[in-house]
Fold this sequence. Notes:
The structure is a single chain. The protein is globular. The protein has helices spanning 37-45, 75-90, 146-165, 180-185, 200-218, 242-254, 269-278, 297-301, 311-315, 319-325; strands at 8-10, 13-15, 19-21, 51-57, 95-99, 118-119, 128-131, 134-137, 142-143, 170-175, 223-227, 260-264, 283-286, 306-309. The strands form 4 sheets. The protein has an 8-stranded parallel β-barrel with strand order 3-4-5-10-11-12-13-14. Strands 1-2 form a two-stranded antiparallel ribbon. It contains 10 helices and 14 strands. By secondary structure, the chain is an alpha/beta fold. The chain has one domain (2-336): Aldolase class I (TIM Barrel, Alpha-Beta Barrel).
Amino acid sequence: xxxxxxxxxxxxxxxxxxxxxxxxxxxxxxxxxxxxxxxxxxxxxxxxxxxxxxxxxxxxxxxxxxxxxxxxxxxxxxxxxxxxxxxxxxxxxxxxxxxxxxxxxxxxxxxxxxxxxxxxxxxxxxxxxxxxxxxxxxxxxxxxxxxxxxxxxxxxxxxxxxxxxxxxxxxxxxxxxxxxxxxxxxxxxxxxxxxxxxxxxxxxxxxxxxxxxxxxxxxxxxxxxxxxxxxxxxxxxxxxxxxxxxxxxxxxxxxxxxxxxxxxxxxxxxxxxxxxxxxxxxxxxxxxxxxxxxxxxxxxxxxxxxxxxxxxxxxxxxxxxxxxxxxxxxxxxxxxxxxxxxxxxxxxxxxxx
Length: 353
């Protein structure tokens, strides 16, 4: 486990250790997408971890899916994120803002414009979503035109620039968890007949174009991406070609020299090992529900360069110190994950013997 606490170079930065705070939706933004002082406290409390990846942040109005999630496309958004990045930096930490377009995983009641969600194709996910008036069925999305797909690429480019203006050390493109980018990858959500649908190369095109646009805007050493091969939720099915698609996609992304690839691993070990061989840059592996006694195993084996953790970091602002000293961990309170105020957000205690 000692290698966990060794410095590692990721992009243009040397991180203090090889532990990463995984992105976690907290639904505590204002309706206009700005975040307040509690968010600055929340993130800065956890700045001892090697890298913080922020909650998913919409790059445009149409990118929002859930209630009370933050944006990074207006001056007010930039100003609110600047207070957060400054707070993290004062504590010696590093933070990448995750750019997340929810695509069809959206409800009009959760967005400022109340428009229908957008997606590769007009196919509903067959799921419900929380709104201010309770759980509601997610409506069938509107299929993006080819020009709108290209404009969405530009939305990511613009949001990346605004994130850097807000003081972020870099951005992570959210290409996982059944949101817009992964919807393009999956035949069950993408039945397009233009250059963004059909073949593996076409379905991967959107993700690759976004990565290239962001690299052009802020540099490869401040650009990263998160993928979750094999995600099978909310009607998403990548089909038999899924492993081949990810081998192609990761190979193309590898050519760009990104700061890191962040994989949410869902159980296909041969594919994970194959991607490790293809990817020649820092790799972060997240294994959901990894037990404490296995923390550091992927780094020790050489499979990963860093490991990311969500729930344990959420509940333990001093996560790194607890690991180093062998102290017990706070248990996370699931009832306070989303929405609310300081409870379950900034009031988790640090360890005291």
